[in-house]
Amino acid sequence: MRATTTYVWPALFTLAATAGLLLALLRNGVLEWVALAMIAAPIVAFAVFWQRARKRRPVAGRTA
Amino acid sequence: MRRESLRRWSFVHEWSSLICTPFLLLLCLTGLPLIFHHEIHHLTMDLVEPATPAPEQPANLDMLVANSLAQFPGKVVQYVTWDEEEPNVLFLTLNSSADAPFPESLAVRMDAGTGAYLDQPDIQSGVMAFILQLHTDLFAGLPGKLFLGAMGLLFCAAVISGIVVYGPSMRKLSFGDLRLNRIRLIRWLDLHNLMGILLVAWTLVVAFTGTVNTLADIVLQVWRVDQLAQMVGEHQGRDRPETLSPLQTAVAAAEQNSPGMEPSVVAFPGTPYTSQSHYMVFMKGKTPLTARLAKPVLIDATDSSFTDARDAPWYVSSLLLSQPLHFGDYGGLSLKLLWSVLDIATIVVLISGLYLWIGRRFRKVTRLSVADRRDAEPVTAQRTS
After folding, report:
1. What is the radius of gyration, based on Cα positions, of chain A?
2. CA-nearest residue of chain B to A22?
3. pTM here?
4. What average pLDDT does this structure show over B337-363?
């Protein structure tokens, strides 16, 4: 299960960003915004994971 | 994955990254303002705006050329360029002679509607020109470009090997785990791994297209001896006409032979993109994708008659298509902003990689707990299944 999440999520983000980069070349109305969202997906994902990790971090001190 | 194989991939990742990181940092830092070069030019230069509303009929091109030369006596026109971002402006490149080098040229802005001279922005000097040259060739001409191209390829190798070592290094973690409660080295390791793997598509595309762009001079040379020589054919060796035929009729002849297309650049006779006796009109399509491609149309500069037209060869089309994917200028300001965020994120990946290498080499490991020491080690030093 862990191996699946390790490889599948990065593959999905990579595919989405690649498709977004190519789709944006068409500059076609709504599709353009879809493309921009796909290119932005990795940044949004990082922000989400960062926020989640910050919330989980214990307030007092660090543990080894 | 076998331990020996993993060790090899880890070696490739470590050393390809280390060698290219200083140059990639330079490229990312200089690339950041270049994403917004158009906006920066408009903010920093006191540019004269074209007349509004623009006349329905564009100005006669010959009148426009004459008006520009009247401002700069003794100069000749090398190129006329239609700019997609400023449709009411035509750019003229003037120089002391048709074959004079580009760095000595003047870029002149003309009102496409009225044909009036607007201004001559100094784009060959200043901070942005310095940044551009540092980014493209490190002030070393073609060797500098090729060197940066090699660094781009090394960066591609670093990204691909990074994908390979990412899996084993994440075997005890879920995707997106950031251990912010651990020592700094582990926090940076998780940040590097997550950001690196999320940015794979963008970094590979920008690095590869950047490498393709470094070959632009070579592509031009190959095109000159290949397609241009075939197009000029029997007219090779003819002298430049005393008086050039009207540019307006030359462009009209090119438009007539390329239905559904519009001119993007005209190279005047004697410039590197054409013969001594022909205009080369580069036509482009009207859709967002075909507008990035160019179809060369050769027009005789003695009588504005059509000589030849070809579709650009694959290597020229590849270069032209790689440019927007590298510059990020094909989706308006929103894409440019996104490009800058991704550029900054890449800088973070590069710096975190450097920090990890220094930290692992020089940190006093005796001060670390057993768990921290184990988790901060490179993946090849950990037990693999």
Report:
1. 16
2. B325
3. 0.88
4. 93
